[in-house]
Amino acid sequence: MSLFSLLSVSASGMAAQRERAALLVENLANAETTRTPEGGPYRRKDAVFSSEAADEPFASVFQTEVGATGTGVKISDVIEDTRPPEQRYLPGHPDADANGYVSFPRVNPAEDMVDLLGASRGYQANVAAMSAVKSMINSSIDLLR
What we know:
- The chain is α+β, with helices and mostly antiparallel strands.
- The protein has three helices and four strands, in the order αβαβββα.
- The strands form two sheets. It has a two-stranded antiparallel sheet. A two-stranded antiparallel sheet has the order 3-4.
- Helix 1 runs antiparallel to helix 3 (109-143).
- The longest helix has 35 residues, at 109-143.
- The radius of gyration is 22 Å and the shape is elongated.
């Protein structure tokens, strides 16, 4: 595996963590949304990661033939929460039903903040890996001088 393919692996991890963070922020922003264009309250979304062959723009024919490719990560699916919404008694709310209950999304802000911190740490880990690879590439170039 070349050093350039390692950069592709880290880049795929950074892209996946960025998309995950965007979903988590969307969940937090809609934690109190009781009405959506589809009808009903907002549904919490989660990212499902899966592995994929990393894109190697600098791969040589030899590496392709030997099969020395890196495995990256991607978001293969975004799933919505299928649990019934949380019911709160708010008879004056415009979205209240005949009994005075309003359906709210099942979003736990504390859980999503912890997940957001995890996504941030995953992104930072990939940045650190890319920095290490960059340092190795620079060292290799210095050795060839």
